[in-house]
Amino acid sequence: MSSTAPHVLVIPSPGQGHVIPLLEFSQCLAKLGCRVTFVNSEYDLKRVMKSLEGKNYLDEKIHLVSIPDGMEPWEDRSDFGKLIQSFLPVMPGKLEVLMKEMNEREGEKIDCVIADVIMGWALELAAKMKIRRATLSTSSAASLALAFSIPKLIDDGIINSNGTAIKKQAIRLAPNMPAMNSEQFFWACVGDLPTQKLIFDFMVDNVKAMKVTDFLFCNSTYDLEPASFTMLPELLPVGPLLASNRLGNSAGYYWPEDSNCLKWLDQQPPNSVIYIAFGSLTVFDKIQFEELALGLELCNRPFLWVVRPNITSDTNDAYPEGFHDRVATRGRMIGWAPQQKVLSHPSIACFLSHCGWNSTMEGLSNGVPFLCWPYLYDQLLNQSYICEIWKVGLNFDKNKSGIITREEIKNKVDQVLGDENFKGRAMELKGKALNSIREGGFSYKTFQNFIEWLKS
């Protein structure tokens, strides 16, 4: 093994929310002297390269390669159940061929495989090939603690062997951890019962693979989730994984970033702008989309709203009639934002978010209060952290028709921006999060120890 430049192979789960933190982790490794082969699906790699539009934000030590995911280019990859069924028969075999070819080339022998926590088969493949291995959770430590607690949840009669809640109840895995609704565990938040069972069984298999890995990492910090890390002592923090921490640019997005919005933010008063972004998967029907638009209009505050091309189920223009004209002087809608740069801008007052873990870490690391609009998976758990444990944001209440109304949006915006305690607590968490990656912090030490292990 090379003592100066270990070669690591990194494989994320298909999906932007997984590619971004794994690519950021790879950037950190490259900065510390490692050579990285980053294995995307063919579909993901094309989207990432297209979004970069010729801009090379990656360290020269990172080599991007791809393997097929078993799906046709036009198929819907937001259906995670279908994605699992497609990539499991295809990706393991293709990755094994790729790894064998690398190991046969001079100077390309793989020293370690680093896999997403939901790519446990890649860890099993590395073990089969006698290659050292590590895994990274792109969700919270609490989410991983929940997955590791599945046998106990079954023994305690909270869920059955299919992962279905036996009865609706709120639980805490440990004191000071966020409350979890047994009917809203992340495997039960999407699709029909067969899909939920598929995802549950898939998660059980991944936990087995994680238990025999050499290192188990999480994009979080000990100070943000002390109870969760105490409950799962083998889990090591490496977060927050942010481009700004290494003074670089972020990569891994699927849509080209509209950097002109930063110039628009420069023209807004400090601490005045509502930033609205719902990640890569959230989809609204026309009624809820219109109500959100009218709620932002009703707030009568500057706002920057990320509206993906596929954010609504309606193929026609979903905006309320005359909306653009009425908000032209204070509202800006864009297709995709350089989110980390937006959240660090002094004009941002709060973050109306789907509460994906990447967005949660980015908001916390910039001291921004939240308005929580979770959609699926672990986002409900992250909302519990934000509202109940950290107390840096508020959630929205739906009406009897299941709609978050324009009046509710204005009410919660006014509450968060009218109470300086939200901002004060958010700034305290920012300090804790950033201390983790500074010299002497938990995440800093974890990286240093891992690099020493790779070079040993």
TrEMBL record:
It comes from the Eukaryota. This is UDP-glycosyltransferase. It comes from Melia azedarach (Chinaberry tree).
